[in-house]
């Protein structure tokens, strides 16, 4: 039913996210999501089509909230180098404590969700790349659009790989990625 001022879709996504973290994908049933949100099972199917559609919607919404954080971090910096360092550090540190992302990456309750961040991650990767590039171009309009768009896609994929398989401390990775970005687009380094 949702709550006053809160649509049914949001209530369903909240319920599904909690259940995915708590039980894992395999153990979550559409009926469980419906019950947690106070609606019928048919309402869940009408809104998302199937369980995969529901899981994908949860991950996409989660990614949008994360990108809001990236926007805020990028806005706090005047130069591209420090903005990239801050955004990558934020991403790596936030991901380390992210219960939903851990559930997806570790395959708790089954690894069925892992493709949402790997082989079927196009919606997330494209949305992240586009949004970050658009933000950077608004903030630094003199940058070459084609070069920035190209490097942003590579940086999102590189950062994602460090989320999945961390190898160095976040700040070290962030400086490495910032050097790549600034050298590629011809911006000054820190």
From TrEMBL:
The keyword DNA-binding applies. Pfam families: TetR_C_35, TetR_N. PROSITE patterns: HTH_TETR_2. One of its GO terms (molecular function) is DNA-binding transcription factor activity. Keywords: DNA-binding, Transcription, Transcription regulation. Residues 29-48 bind DNA. The keyword Ligase does not apply. Residues 6-66 form the HTH tetR-type domain. Gene3D superfamilies: Tetracycline Repressor, domain 2. GO terms for biological process: negative regulation of DNA-templated transcription. This is TetR/AcrR family transcriptional regulator.
